[in-house]
Design brief:
The structure is a homodimer. Chain A is α+β, with helices and mostly antiparallel strands. Chain A contains 8 helices and 10 strands. Chains A and B meet through β5 and α4 of A and β5 and α4 of B. Chain A binds a DNA duplex through α7.
Amino acid sequence: MTVLIRKLESIATLSAEERQAIQSLPARTRVLEPRQDIVRDGDKPSQCCLLLDGWAYRYKIIGEGRRQIFSFHVPGDIPDLQSLHIGTMDHSLATLTEATVAFIPHKSMQDLTARFPNIAAVLWRDTLIDAAIFREWMVGMGRRSAYERIAHIFCELYLKLQAVGLAQSYRCPLPITQIDLGDALGLSNVHVNRVLQEMRGKSLITLRGNTLVIEAWDELNRVSEFDPTYLHLEKRVAG
Amino acid sequence: MTVLIRKLESIATLSAEERQAIQSLPARTRVLEPRQDIVRDGDKPSQCCLLLDGWAYRYKIIGEGRRQIFSFHVPGDIPDLQSLHIGTMDHSLATLTEATVAFIPHKSMQDLTARFPNIAAVLWRDTLIDAAIFREWMVGMGRRSAYERIAHIFCELYLKLQAVGLAQSYRCPLPITQIDLGDALGLSNVHVNRVLQEMRGKSLITLRGNTLVIEAWDELNRVSEFDPTYLHLEKRVAG
DNA sequence: CGGACAATTGATCTACCTCAAAATTGGTGG
DNA sequence: CCACCAATTTTGAGGTAGATCAATTGTCCG
């Protein structure tokens, strides 16, 4: 649960007692294959899924195989926290890489939030930040060019990873294909590819073997008009 | 506060005592002009805004005057509920029509949620549904055509209004311009106009004088692949 | 070494945008 | 009741970002 505590402390403050309560949350841990569904659109889960290791993503398929990706998740995230208060899933959650996840019964989460209102507030806050990120992606898909959109998501992912200690020196893992990136941003994989080449040509980034290196952070921020306010990060892990 | 109770009961169940507690929430009521900002991007509000009458919308402006609208709000909504747990606004909230709003201090909301954990859960649920709608709009902007997108938002708005008793017989108020609609869906006003004409031509809708009439509900559902699950409506007001 | 998947390239197409002007509408004051 | 104004809607004429389709190449792994 350490990774969850670290995540929550990146967006709020916890007392020792609260950390302790989170530590002793019961959990059934499991290792999952890459690209494996964890919860599906239409399911009515009775537990939440805490990502301990690896990456996951949320998505929805609409007729004719069109796919929209809503978010990418890293260790410490509870991507389906919402299922605690919304019975029926309106989208799916799946692993991106091999992943270790801990399943926590809704019952245990409910007990925890009942005993510690501050933890409830922090978790609520987490789902609100989730929504803030959705809004920012909406801005991208509605009003930014492909180039700006891709630059923007790179800035976002880097900061999110840095906040939980998974990135530093403008270098971070990025285990997603260009198809995934397109489905997250509302673009075709072909166009994603061309924009990436343009960015490489301008020495903004390097992207090879699942590793993203941001060569020009300031410039990437500038072209995407990136303003991290919406991530609502309280503090950052050194890095 | 009756309108708030009705809204919350459209997505969850309240006890008599809970209804009573909501009724006695302190509020400073005010009438606002059309198109007037209520809270602005960057503000740190100390109160929430309950919409009693009229419409509001949330939006964000990015460089060069590009605007993205995130949501439309009707009586019963608390469009900035998130400010309760997220200190700094990352977008703005404004009226669309003349509107009556009640400002409720964060302090009162916090007392209320502390005393009634079930109300906290319902409000949390409300913000989660808000996020679910954001996701559906993301699907639209990322993967649906302009035609599908417009048809989809009409279905959504009609059901949301019906749920709080503001629409019936496939007819509802819609006090928004084609420019607003475009900024909500990531389209130009010109293109919105052409798509609307196409829909009129096919007798799917009538849209005049701020009133939307859905002439062919089933067909509108079909072309937009509309599935209301994501609205997570518990029950509907008769109508 | 082979097979599968991901990235890349080329060629063509189109949904939607931009710009600009005209027509319509709704509200306002005389 | 009418004339007028501002905002909105509508129309027309290009223009383009990004899509689609179809190979080809590169990469990772067993």
